[in-house]
Structures are given as C-alpha cells and as structure tokens.
Amino acid sequence: MSPATLAHCSILLLAGGQGSRMGGQDKGLVTWRGKPMVAWIHQVARPLTDELLISCNRNQDRYTRFADRVVSDAEPGFLGPLAGIRAGLAASTGRWTLVLPCDAPRVDEALLVQMYEAARADPDRPVMIRQGDRWQPLFCVIPTQLACQLEAAWQAGERSNYRVLERLGARALNLEPYDQRLANLNTPEIMAQHASGPGT
C-alpha cells in the first residue's frame, strides 16, 4: 500500500440519499467525466484504507464492487446523512471513520491524509471541515468509539449530523473557501460547471 495509508481508519462513503436535486437519480452512480461519481472517490480512497464502506439504500449490487462492505440505514424512509453515518459507524472496525459524500468526485489523496492527520492530532474528538464560515459536516472524521453517543442522539430525535458532531466537540479543519475538492456535484447544473478542467 501507499506510504500515506490511513492506519486504523475506515472510510465511509455516503450514498444513501434520494437524489431529489438529481431528479431522483442515485447520485453516486451518475456519470461524471465518463464514470460513476463513486468511482472517482473509490479511486482515491481504495489505496488508503483497509476498510472501505458504502452506505446506500438502493442499488446495493452496483455499489458492492466499490466497497469492502455495503451497509444500509436501519430504518426506512431516506432519513438523511446522519442515518448513513449511524449505519457506517456500527459496521466500522477502524479506530476512526472518515466520512465523505458520494457526490464529491474531486477529493484527492492530500485532502484525505490532511483529514486523517487532523484526527490523529486529537484522537478522541471528531474533525469537521470548515470553509471560511461555512461548515462541511459530510466531510468529517469520527472516532468510532463515539458510535454509542451518536446512537443516543439519534434515539433522542436528532437528525442533524452537524449538531451531533458539534455536541461531540468536533474541531475544525479549516480549508480555503473555494477549495474545489469539496465541490458537491449534486445538481445537473453544478455537474456541468465541473465537466471540464483538471481531474482528481
């Protein structure tokens, strides 16, 4: 494996949404620059981890080739990204779980390593990316031991992953406001804007 391997860190890709802004399409499987968006993230993440998980609620058979294991929400109804994180943490065997959305195909190895190193610097607290004054709660690293606390928040009715991470004492990893690696290509219009230019 690469020297940049993220030791004891699982990677979780969130692909469980309805894709409402994509006309109901499964975003991770939408083609961008000739292949599914999830394939771009898989290309970056696969060499860095011993455990690559994908949280999805449909097309599990198509996602299987991009993951060591596929997990699904414990409850029906597309309940949001926190449900996917909940399922991923329950399945994760790493000390940390690095979370990424499936519609961010411009992530690169340097970003994932930076997130991991930020988590290792304070190993018992989550890390969440912030761009200027804007938080990006779907780009985070969570100590897997906090799964019980996240579950307690879920059972209490919380559905915001940002609020859960904030309560768990998440630290900010500050990045530039216009860092294109964090671009969520979650509408056809945004995908078109990123159709050309350097890849990941």
Automatic annotation (TrEMBL):
It is found in: Cytoplasm. Its cofactor is Mg(2+). GO terms for cellular component: cytoplasm. It comes from the Bacteria. Mg(2+) binds at residue 103. GO terms for molecular function: GTP binding; metal ion binding; molybdenum cofactor guanylyltransferase activity. It is an enzyme of class 2 (transferase). GTP binds at residues 14-16, 27, 73, 103. The keyword Cell membrane does not apply. Residues 12-168 form the MobA-like NTP transferase domain. Pfam families: NTP_transf_3 (PF12804). It catalyses: Mo-molybdopterin + GTP + H(+) = Mo-molybdopterin guanine dinucleotide + diphosphate. Keywords: Cytoplasm, GTP-binding, Magnesium, Metal-binding, Molybdenum cofactor biosynthesis, Nucleotide-binding, Nucleotidyltransferase, Transferase. CDD domains: MobA (cd02503). Transfers a GMP moiety from GTP to Mo-molybdopterin (Mo-MPT) cofactor (Moco or molybdenum cofactor) to form Mo-molybdopterin guanine dinucleotide (Mo-MGD) cofactor. Monomer. The N-terminal domain determines nucleotide recognition and specific binding, while the C-terminal domain determines the specific binding to the target protein. NCBIfam families: molyb_mobA. HAMAP family: MobA (MF_00316). Belongs to the MobA family. This is Molybdenum cofactor guanylyltransferase.
